Structure formats: structure tokens, C-alpha cells
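DEPOSITED CHAIN:
***
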Amino acid sequence: MSAGDRDAIRQVIESQLDAFRRDDAGEAFSYASPMIQEKFGNPANFMRMVREGYTPVYRPRSVEFQDLKMQQGRPAQEVLFVGPDGRAVLARYFMERQPSGRWRIDGVVLMRAPDRVV
């Protein structure tokens, strides 16, 4: 994975997080892969799912980018979030390169964050 791809992947995720902060459903939805867009059908359905099931991603107190790994043959960017309740979760963003060359988010899995000593 090139440094340019790594930067582009991070930019897509950061842009979507910024759209969530502004409650811009259309823009947030635009960073999802075609499969995700088809699954939810429209920006309003997508934002409802994010608000209800991904609160730490929707309204994070803090965001820390971790490793970018290859998993199941595709890039998976790990991001540590501290949610509004103060709990840390690790999000794994599965990325998909589009025919245009642009990266899109093809799914996010939330996991318990590893214990950390600060």
C-alpha cells in the first residue's frame, strides 16, 4: 500500500467524520461504497443507522488513527474512538477502491478497545 493510498484512506474517513459532526447526511453517505449505499438506500436511513448503532463514531470525544492492515485481501484502517460516554472502542474501517481510483468505506466493525496504560 502506497503512502498516497494511506493518506487518501485517512482523508475519506476524516471527511466522513466531519460530515457526521455537521449532520450532513448527504456528504457522509457519499463516502460509503456502492454496496453500503445500496443497502441503506438513502442518506437519511444511513444516518439513522450511524446515530443508533455507531454513537462513538457519530459523536466522538476523541479520534486516534491506528494501523492500516490488510485483512481478507483489502485495506482495514483501525481507528480508536472515545465515545460521548467516555468509553473507548476500536473501529475497523474496511476500504474499497472504486473504478475511479477513489477510496470508499465498505463497512465498519466496532470492537472493544484494547486496555491501554496512559
